[in-house]
Design goal:
The protein is α+β, with helices and mostly antiparallel strands. It has helices at about 1-5, 55-75, 120-140, 155-170, 180-195, 195-200, 240-250, 270-285, 290-295, 295-315, 330-355; strands spanning about 20, 25-30, 40-45, 95-100, 105-110, 210, 220, 225-230, 235-240. The strands form 3 sheets. Strands 1-2-3-5-4 form a 5-stranded antiparallel sheet, with no helix packed on it. A two-stranded antiparallel sheet has the order 6-9. A two-stranded antiparallel ribbon has the order 7-8. The structure holds 2-acetamido-2-deoxy-1-O-phosphono-alpha-D-glucopyranose and magnesium ion (MG).
Amino acid sequence: MQNIISQFRLANSVGEPRPLKVGLINDSYIIPAATEGEESYFLQRINHHIFTNVEGLQNNIKTVTDHIRTKLQNKGVADIDNHVLRLIPTKDNRLYIKTAGGDYWRVYHFISAGHSVEQVTPESAYLAGVAFGEFQNQLSDLPHSALCESIPNFHNIEFRLWQLSEAVKADKAGRVAGTQDILNEINRRADDMCLAERLFREGKLPKRINHCDTKVNNMLFDDEGKPMCIVDLDTVMPGFVFSDFGDFMRTAANTGAEDDSDLNNIHVNMEVFRAYTEGYLGQARFLTDIERSMLPYGCRLLSYMQTVRFLTDWLNGDTYYKILYPEHNLVRTRAQLRLLEEQEKCSTDMEKIVKA
Ligand code: GN1
Ligand code: MG
């Protein structure tokens, strides 16, 4: 690993990298500063089976972080490195390295003042809503053409349903028979869940640049519980605003875990929903009426999409997401489906909150 690290332009000497358990896709490490007070770094092996266009991916991140950095500078923000990610270039000025073995690595400045959380209070949910609304605002003047789709059709539910149908047809792991009840639940909602894509084709629903992975743990908070920095910019791309609104609610406004094996733990936390919505709507003044009225729908869409994606991976024999035990993707699937059912029960209340 020293050989990898030595290719990046680090400002000071560092210690041994330590693995960090974050995310389901890439492998992450912290490279601590050798001397306290100096800069530490965040090293990642990019999963290039998933991000097949690493060059495009890294250019996206550079474009987005430069754009936000300029906005923060113009606002006179002091400790900018705490508020936007900073990629560390290689000694020959590239944004990543590729090893002889075909692995891709990148390095970020490590934001040591921040920490991530798995659960929020209504107070921190409100602030998170402000922060994600601000994030969309900051990127609203970046032309769509400035970014590539780091994963094509990433949040396109029609595409995800097609992938699921292919997985069912192939039945590679011989698991289809055991999931028929879930498949039925997915199929009977498919038409409704493809509404957004249809509205887009009819020109009624716009796309905007979204983060596309606004899980609650992709935001760093400071010691006082205030949002500091939005991280994991791998999937920033044009999409429906629901992607960001819905993914936050999927993770933060869920009383259970994303992979809860006890389905009775899973309910919608309406106080978190209310608080985040308030914070978000205060910032996201660019929303059209249809986008605003479809926010509760967006929550369901993202839980539905995650149900479809986890199930697809289960049927394919666990080739996409990292798993911690053999049934993990199936457990995740059932937990996301239960969350969807719970959200359906709360839809009318959610609509009232958004209107209010
Ligand atoms: C993946 O790596 P991570 O945990 O940030 C996935 C998201 C899913 C999420 C489910 C590139 O994100 O889309 O919502 O797992 N990222 C990719 O927890 O597929
Ligand atoms: Mg991610």
